[in-house]
Specification:
This protein is an alpha/beta fold. It contains twelve helices and eleven strands. 49% of the residues lie in helices and 16% in strands. Bound molecules: glyceraldehyde-3-phosphate, 1,3-dihydroxyacetonephosphate and zinc ion.
Amino acid sequence: MALVTSTEMFKKAYEGGYAIGAFNVNNMEILQGITEAAKETKAPLILQVSAGARKYANHTYLIKLVEAAIIETGLPICLHLDHGDTFELCKSCIDGGFTSVMIDGSHHSFEDNIKLTKQVVEYAHDKGVVVEGELGRLAGIEDAVNVSEKDAAFTDPDQVVEFVERTGVDSLAIAIGTSHGAFKFKGEAKLRFDILEDIQKKLPGFPIVLHGASSVMPEYVEIINKFGGDMPGAKGVPEDMLRKAASMAVCKINIDSDLRLALTATIRKYFAENPSHFDPRQYLGPARQAIKDVVKHKIINVLGCNDKV
Ligand code: G3H
Ligand code: 13P
Ligand code: ZN
């Protein structure tokens, strides 16, 4: 098995009414937790790397870790650039072995977004790499993504056909109310399924991507708060909403914050209970197991992509 693009995964996911999990990778333990979960559940997998993760862990180390995961699991794995913001960054990942890139032109005007996305698509397709574009703007704060609530905007269904046709993108990330990070909803969680439905009608069979899709699992927030953290009001996307989106046109669901929370909660708890330990394997081992537990749960109970390999 080698690295694959997401084309085949998305086709089957669309037809089967499930979604592929796209999990963010920042280090070896995170990658091992994710890939062991996918192996045990026989799930196709997208591993995604942000610009920040690439800077932190180094392109070559990440590529080699993913190659090792393919050997160890025998799974089809797609290696994806998450939130590429320039042509140069996308080109560097395409040249360096990624099989999929996102060009996030959502901060630009409609015309500039099309221009930038088209430029990336032309370069990527020439090398057999697929491209995810974004239309609409999610709220939230991460390393490289920082959009205030007032600047967020739902995707306009009347723009999607023109965007897809003029850019040639292979999948489209849309904004229907999810947001990045651990504080997604102040009151009741609400997603605009009417917009998703409208987009699905306008682009039949076309794979849609949902960012900001962590559920901000309460069990891990509770552990963080119990052991010295302070995250009152942390709230994510309810899992039944994600399942509904997966049964519709959403073929890729992005999850990062839930992995961060599981890892951090486990390490906080470990040190609260074992304050004098200092062997990294003693706390990174359980943290890796927590990542694995979360990813298995997502694959089986949220995405529905188990037993699809
Ligand atoms: O959507 C962004 C991802 O969660 C990656 O976040 O830029 O902090 O690595 P990052
Ligand atoms: P979360 O912050 O909800 O995990 O979203 C991650 C994401 O969209 C990565 O692109
Ligand atoms: Zn995102």
